Amino acid sequence: MTELTTYRNARAYGFCPGCSHRLVLEALDRVLIRLQWDPADIVIVTDIGCVGLSDQYFVTSGFHGLHGRSLTYATGIKLARPDLHVINLIGDGGCGIGCAHLVSAARRNIGVTTIVFNNLNFGMTGGEHSVTTPTDQKTATTPWGNTEVPLDIAQTVAVNGATYVWRGTAFDPGLDEQLEIALTHDGFALLDVWELCVAYYAAANRVGPKELRAMIDRSGFASGVIKKADRVEGSTALRAVWQGLVGEPVHLANPLETTYSHSLDCPRAIVIAGAAGARVRTAGHVISTAATLSGLWTTQRDDYPVTVRSGHSMSYVLVSPEPIHFTGISQADVLFVLSEDSWGKTAAVSGLMREDQWVFVVPELVDRLTTKAQVRVLRLNALKGIAAAGRSLAVVAAGIVVLGFLSPESLIAAAGQLNPEYAQANQAAVRKAFAVTDVLFEA
Q1: Residue pair 181/159 in contact by the 8 Å Cβ criterion
Q2: pLDDT tens per residue across span 206-223
Q3: In the chain, where does the domain assigned CATH 3.40.50.970 lie?
Q4: Which CATH number fits domain 21-241: 3.20.20.70, 3.40.50.970, 3.90.550.10, 3.30.1490.100?
């Protein structure tokens, strides 16, 4: 590569006269000239705000995104291409909006150099106060003086895992040196650079370069090098873990092998509706597992309220002899209505069913059904000896066997695939249900 004398392009800055942003960008250009990195290996990532204009002024690659999200883009780029030099230019506004991303990047020690252009207000949108506006300072939205405590960006990332952190001002004579250290640091490095927004903040608070340094001290914030530590860089740490897993399955650590047969010639949609805590999802899981053990394709989707242990519980299971390309269930082939709690979710479903489809329902709800499907009423007294927690599974397993979809053996085996603490009891419940199938359902 021919030696570069600038990494700036010919485009003129669009900042206000006297804006400190140009001082930091010129320092960045000087350091890049010293480092002589290939511009193709550099990505400058920005988001919204005055600093968001910055990527267009360099001959490097650039990425511009949503406000507060630049660190997520920078993280993704570094994870995908750890060989690149990723520089995140962000304002104090972006740090406030994306504070969780800031903390997460520090925790991961992702190898991104973050330069915070901290001018203590939202300079692009009219000078509103930001998370770093010092207490008592005036802005467009705090003309009486800010009553909030400012966010200490530098200490926030320092205590959360960043391995190089510095705070100073855009007028600091050591800025170039700090930029070079941060850019060549192998880990998450952040420079909290306090600046002057001459259009709004500096004008409202009569602040100049000297006062800016004094404000850092009055805020009780440390300055200079705040953190310097050694820790494995984030993308390197991940690749060390991934290296031994290449070619290995991620989710199917214990794949289910086809052991049993089935009689299905087309897809079947099974809806199980009951009460929260009644092991409805367990029943759906057993049906799905049995179908998989029988060589079928299967999906399961569960529905329950945020309260989890009260109200309805639903399990939607789709089984098919062919690959499933659409996992939604628009109409049930088999519907189990096991509780009043789920009636509101199943009344409309049963009303759409055809004569060749089936509904299994508890006695107290049978008179409320309006359906063309074949109805079988549960004789609950046949379930004596089965614990209440296992009744949903017992009923569903028995109903599936009655319809001939799956073999009893596959369902018993599937029940044994559950948590070992419950597997034996679940298998016992399924076997008991099979023993009373002839009296469990009434036409």
Answers
A1: no
A2: 999 999 999 999 999 999
A3: 21-241
A4: 3.40.50.970
